[in-house]
Design goal:
Length: 313
């Protein structure tokens, strides 16, 4: 009898070790142009959502909301994006499921996503914002295309750690640009960018003005186009020697993308952001909203040590 009890105990211990964190839910995601698309069920209907840490409100597309007859809780509201403002309506979702994790009676926004970002031409049905994501610690494996949602903090042992606070519902990080400008950057995984080996971060007009004042030699070296809430944008990019996050993560020879004074970036205190284009370089990262930190592997991608040659006056 004693031998049997030990055997049963061993089975329980093995299950705990192999099953991972209690309540953790892992789902496969699709990755396209630096964007994460995950399967979500709304009122038991299978849908495709964009995972966006740059959105503080979850969205259901207007056509889906009408198809599911989602009850309206408020008629008029607005959402501000990189290219302008859009009117939205608040609706009630009885159940929102990520894998087997189900959230009950969630108020989300309803708006037209018909001309918004697509996954290789496929329209999305909604956007998963931080009003939902802040309830979890996320571990994103860019190599296996799997993301784990858990209700407990991720252990930080043997990981590089960068902390953040939440400003207007969006993660915000301390940053230093080109060893001269101390500032802040949001984390926005809703930023679409074609595959590239280089790291790109977006900066506001005010941040660019301040950085240019400290580094007169900097000037745009390439041009990009993109889209966001409110319409399309045409963007200039500038190469810098170094991007630093929270004084302990250094990224060399990255690009800053200059945002025009439109939408959110018209605001005086607007700041820039980074997204999956940066995080994917680390392979597997944890975005822990519960502990307000991102955990990166100790063995980081080898930075390019070359520096930008300054023009002689």
């Amino acid at each position: 009898m004693r031998r049997r009890l030990r055997y049963l105990l061993l089975l329980i211990v093995v299950c705990v070790l192999s099953c991972g964190a209690v309540g953790a839910q892992t789902v496969k995601f699709s990755y396209y142009n630096s964007l994460i698309f995950i399967p979500v069920k709304v009122n038991n209907v299978d849908l495709l959502f964009l995972l966006n840490t740059g959105a503080n409100a979850t969205v259901v597309d207007k056509r889906i909301a009408e198809k599911l007859s989602l009850a309206v809780t408020r008629e008029v509201d607005t959402v501000t994006g990189t290219a302008g403002k859009e009117p939205v309506t608040l609706v009630m979702v009885k159940s929102l499921a990520i894998g087997t994790t189900v959230l009950k009676n969630t108020v989300v926004t309803k708006r037209d996503l018909g001309t918004f970002i697509t996954m290789d031409g496929q329209k999305i049905d909604g956007i998963l914002g931080t009003d939902v994501l802040k309830q979890f610690a996320l571990t994103i494996d860019y190599n296996t295309k799997r993301i784990t949602f858990q209700k407990t903090k991720v252990p930080a042992a043997n990981k590089k750690r960068i902390t953040f606070d939440m400003r207007d519902g969006i993660p915000r990080f301390e940053a230093r640009l080109n060893d001269t400008l101390n500032t802040f950057l949001h984390m926005n995984t809703g930023v679409s960018l074609l595959p590239t080996k280089e790291v790109h971060v977006n900066v506001s007009p005010k941040q660019w003005e301040e950085l240019k004042g400290l580094n007169p030699h900097l000037s745009p070296s390439k041009y990009l186009s993109g889209s966001g809430v409110g319409g399309g944008v045409y963007l200039q990019a500038v190469k810098i020697n170094k991007l630093e996050l929270n004084h302990n993560i250094n990224i060399y020879n990255s690009y800053i993308i200059l945002q025009p004074k439109e939408g959110y970036f018209k605001e005086k205190n607007a700041i820039g952001f980074f997204g999956n284009n940066l995080l994917e370089k680390y392979g597997r990262v944890s975005v822990d909203f519960l502990a307000r930190q991102i955990l990166l592997p100790m063995k980081s991608p080898a930075p390019t040590k070359k520096t930008i040659k300054r023009k002689k006056k």
